[in-house]
Amino acid sequence: MRIVTSIAEMQSIARTAHGAGKTIGLVPTMGFLHQGHASLMHEGRKRCDLLVTSIFVNPTQFGVGEDFERYPRDMERDSALAQEAGVDLIFAPAATEMYPSGFETYVDVERLTLPLCGASRPGHFRGVTTVVCKLFNIVQPDVALFGKKDFQQLAVIRRMTADLNMAVGIVGMPIIREPDGLAMSSRNSYLSPAERRSALCLNRAITAARAAFRAGETSVARLRERAEAIIAEEPAALIDYLEYRDGDTLAECSQADHRTLLALAVKIGQTRLIDNGIMGEDD
Ligand code: PAF
């Protein structure tokens, strides 16, 4: 497995691969890889000839006061996990390679980025779409894989790809959870053992909401009360948002159906975690 840090070299490898009739798959990440990333890599391995993962903690998607500096990084561990998962090449550019001085072009998806994480983290998705667009131009993937834990991110990237006619297939993969239900996330490493236990309330809220929906409850007001009550049982948990939205358009809704999304962001101590579930589906 190779590690490439130069954009020019990565583009040249991509050109050569395409010239030889090979397909390229990309799993974009910010590193500190876990089994959620590995599941994307395993699926990518099946779908392409050259499997690339990018490891880049993207400064433009972090707001002032967020965790850019302390975001966990461990290239050695990441390389071992990526190799094990079948990755051929890690693309790991420096921030100055991706954003040299004079950089001033951004990609902005206007409407889908307004609610949920877009409202809590202004500018976040502009950073995500910009870096993902750049990664697509550099790695030139035929297919790119993203996790559904970042449900809104996946919707935004699908929108960008369609609107800008990018010739890349976007694959959304199920949320991978720890055995006790906590959705895997690099940020789980911030949690103390007590916070780790408190963090289970996110999945408990989703499970309870789904159970109520499946028992016939379709009033979003009552489903919201149900999920909020579960989070309220945890003194360490503070809701950033807890919203039911249409799973395709992210529009607000007052009546739930099988495509309704429950999306939540909850602060456990200093750590902000997100999770979600579609009412009529399992993860
Ligand atoms: O989901 C992530 O890890 C990041 O937002 C992504 C897609 C790699 C862009 O930096």
Q: Could you explain how this protein is built, in words?
A:
The structure is a single chain. The chain has 283 residues and is of the alpha/beta class. It folds into two domains: 2-173, HUPs (Rossmann fold), CATH 3.40.50.620; 186-276, Pantoate--beta-alanine Ligase, Chain: A,domain 2. 38% of the residues lie in helices and 19% in strands. The protein has ten helices and nine strands. The chain has helices spanning 7-19, 35-47, 75-84, 95-98, 116-120, 124-139, 151-163, 193-198, 200-214, 220-232; strands at 2-4, 24-29, 50-55, 89-91, 143-147, 169-173, 237-246, 260-268, 271-278. The strands form two sheets. A six-stranded parallel sheet has the order 1-4-3-2-5-6, sandwiched between helices. The chain has a three-stranded antiparallel sheet with strand order 7-8-9. The longest helix is centred in the middle third of the chain and has 16 residues, at 124-139. It is globular. The two termini are 31 Å apart. The mean pLDDT is 98. Residues 28-30, 58, 61, 128, 131-132, 150, 153 line the site of pantoate. The site of pantoate has 10 residues, from β2 and α6.
Provide a short characterization of the protein structure:
The protein is of the alpha/beta class.
Helices, strands, pairings?
Layout: E1 2-4, H1 7-19, E2 24-29, H2 35-47, E3 50-55, H3 75-84, E4 89-91, H4 95-98, H5 116-120, H6 124-139, E5 143-147, H7 151-163, E6 169-173, H8 193-198, H9 200-214, H10 220-232, E7 237-246, E8 260-268, E9 271-278
Parallel strand pairs: 1-4, 2-3, 2-5, 3-4, 5-6
Antiparallel strand pairs: 7-8, 8-9
Helix pairs in contact: 6-7, 9-10
Bound molecules: pantoate (PAF).
